[in-house]
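Crash report, auto-generated. Payload:
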Amino acid sequence: QQQVKQSPQSLIVQKGGISIINCAYENTAFDYFPWYQQFPGKGPALLIAIRPDVSEKKEGRFTISFNKSAKQFSLHIMDSQPGDSATYFCAASMGNQFYFGTGTSLTVIP
Amino acid sequence: DAMVIQNPRYQVTQFGKPVTLSCSQTLNHNVMYWYQQKSSQAPKLLFHYYDKDFNNEADTPDNFQSRRPNTSFCFLDIRSPGLGDAAMYLCATSRKTWDNSPLHFGNGTRLTVT
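Recovered output after restart:
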């Protein structure tokens, strides 16, 4: 059973555009929602995270939007750059249990 | 810099030949995890340690074992690797379980089974 559903599987965006990746979850016990960025041959690295008592969090060009009632959250990458080309995983956690989405491969074309 | 270090980066083993992957951390985190990641898939949790307490995922094959001799080190033992065990193995740490601390990943060990 997939605890966290992520879409799209792949995304191609022009440089300067907005990249949007969506995730949905079922378990209302989740209390922490991180996003990870992974480059080929590297481990995932924490990008940004949000708690369910906040509807939006922004760090630089990266924004998480969180809709608690819909049990959905999304990552927005503003002014997307070729260096943002990577795989992005959303996750949801409770305690020390982390559940990952299936990943989105983002390609930003110059 | 505090970090999670995995060795080796690449490991080749033969079918059925035991192999050990290692992970060390300088973060002094309580929790250490082992994930298996196959190509284009999400990391899949194999097991984790909270301090010395071992927590195995229900669907982790018996072929996979782990040891954590101290806070800093954790090992993944694959007793009889099969071709299906070829994957990236990721070690991760987190500070503790009740304050929403994130996972910190190492760069992984790419395991090839011949």
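Post-recovery validation: Chain B touches chain A at residues 4, 6, 31, 40-43, 45, 48, 50, 90, 92, 94, 96-98, 100, 102-108, 110 (CB under 8 Å).
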